[in-house]
Amino acid sequence: MPGPIATEGIVLRSIRYGEADRILHLYTPHRGRVGAIAKGVRRPRSRFGGRLEPFFRLRLDLHEGRGELLTVTGAHTLEGHARLRADAAALDAAARACDAVARLFETGEPHPAVFNLLCRKLALLDQRPATATRAAALAFRLKLLVAAGIGPQLGACTTCGEREHLSGFSPAAGGVVCHACEAGSFPLGQEAHRFMVHSLAHSLSEDLAAPPRALGQAERAISEMLEHHAHLRLMPAWAPSPKAPAQSLTQSIP
Question: Beta strand 3-17 with 250-253: parallel, antiparallel or unpaired?
């Protein structure tokens, strides 16, 4: 129903619009992903200042009218994540995390757990920029898969239920498979399997590590699960030594 809305939100993307406005992609706990316009925000004396930028966690006052976009009427900073912005790797990791949430959860369906997960990811990157690693990025994506209802089965063969001799991963079957059922799968070594299980069983703040080969197998499992079950292909979860964010989250529309 049209009218005022008060909510928390994370700015996923900010798009310059016209001469002074911005269109924002926001992720909220109870309305999912929403679009909003902040009028006059780019004017020097705007009351919003610089707080409507990607990765800000805000308390927002919005107005819902008849159009698709909400209107931002007020914004209070809860977390600005200033330290994150000073580190290229952390900035890149934050951009990839926000892009994954924006694309995998692109509707207005509420997912409070996803909102909280993204809040924790950004807070961790801000507090400990050194956590911008490939292992941490993959652990975050694994948790997103679970939140989306397409988490991989890792405890037993998805075909026959065998709990031993698990040697492959089948995106079509939705998880690990044993030697006898490995047709149509790709190899998933013990270290990759252990990494995925550990990632889902522990919080994002855990220091995770695995050999590059194992991380490559885990990333392939995540990517192919997304393609097979969500028909979605995301950018790689991580890039070594980025010089700039994965992609610009601030764009322009004339």
Answer: parallel
Q: Are 38 and 72 in contact (CB under 8 A)?
A: yes
The Cα–Cα gap between 155 and 225 comes to 16
Residue 12 · residue 249 · CB < 8 Å: yes
Higher pLDDT among residues 249 and 187, named by residue: 187
Q: Which two tokens stand for residue 253?
A: 């529309």
Question: Taking Cα atoms as reference points, which of 245, 3, 18, 253 lies closest to residue 125?
Answer: 245
Beta bridge partners of residue 72, listed in sequence order: 62
Residue 1's pLDDT is 59
Global confidence as pTM: 0.91
CA atoms of 113 and 121, how far apart (whole Å) = 12
Q: Of 173, 105, 90, 166, which Cα lies nearest the Cα of 141? A: 105
Interval 115-165: pLDDT, tens: 999 999 999 999 999 999 999 999 999 999 999 999 999 999 999 999 999
Q: Tell me how far apart the alpha carbons of residues 73 and 19 are, in angstroms, rounded to a whole number.
A: 18
Query: Is residue 172 helix, strand or coil?
Result: coil
Averaged confidence pLDDT in the chain:
91
> Which has the closest alpha carbon to 139: 96, 171, 110, 178?
96
